Amino acid sequence: MKTVVPMRINGQAREDAMADNLLLIDYLREQLNLTGTKQGCDGGECGACTVLVDNVPRLACLTLAASVAGRHVETVESLSSAGRLSPLQQAFNEKLGTQCGYCTPGMLMASEALLRSNPAPSVEQIRAALAGNLCRCTGYVKIIESVQAAAGSFTSLSRKGATA
Predict the structure, then answer these.
(1) Would you place residue 135 in the very low, low, confident or very high pLDDT band (cuts 50, 70, 90)?
(2) Are 129 and 90 in contact (CB under 8 A)?
(3) Which of 39, 44, 78, 155 suits a disulfide with 74, CB 3.0-4.6 Å?
(4) Quick one: 52 and 102 in the same domain?
(5) What kind and span of H or E run contains 3?
(6) Measured CA distances, 120 to 5, 72, 106, 129, 163 (Å)
(7) pLDDT at res. 152
(8) Whole domain around residue 111: which residue ranges?
(9) Each residue of 84-108: pLDDT tens digit?
(10) What is the DSSP string of 56-105?
């Protein structure tokens, strides 16, 4: 059975007919060609498929697409604007937070959610926010340093917004 599901994907309103058992990751990758969201373990263990649903990190491999009806879904493609990297993406690039890159979209989305809610997190808070995201290439030091570097940008943005 198919249902018409309204939602916002990366700021764009959509209404698509989809099977009730369609996973969000399959909808994003196969129907919308948003391939930044990676399919890793297929069991909710690696975090490579992390997206934001109403600003909350969610594993797309465990989420039915129909369950996000009426909500806003953000993928890693939403972070850059007009071909420019976001402050978080720039920090991952500059601080070498990306190794092979497979886990990076999930790391970025989990980090984005953290920095939106806490623009100046401690190392412990960063580790907790990224606990569901696995990287097989690194010891996480560069990833944590990347999030810390980006935190300065988020803090600056928060202050600018408060004074504007």
Answers:
(1) very high
(2) no
(3) 78
(4) no
(5) strand 2-9
(6) 36, 25, 20, 13, 18
(7) 81
(8) 87-163
(9) 999 999 999 999 999 899 999 999 9
(10) EEEETTSSBGGGGTTSEEE-GGGT-BTTB--HHHHHHHHTT--SSSSSHH
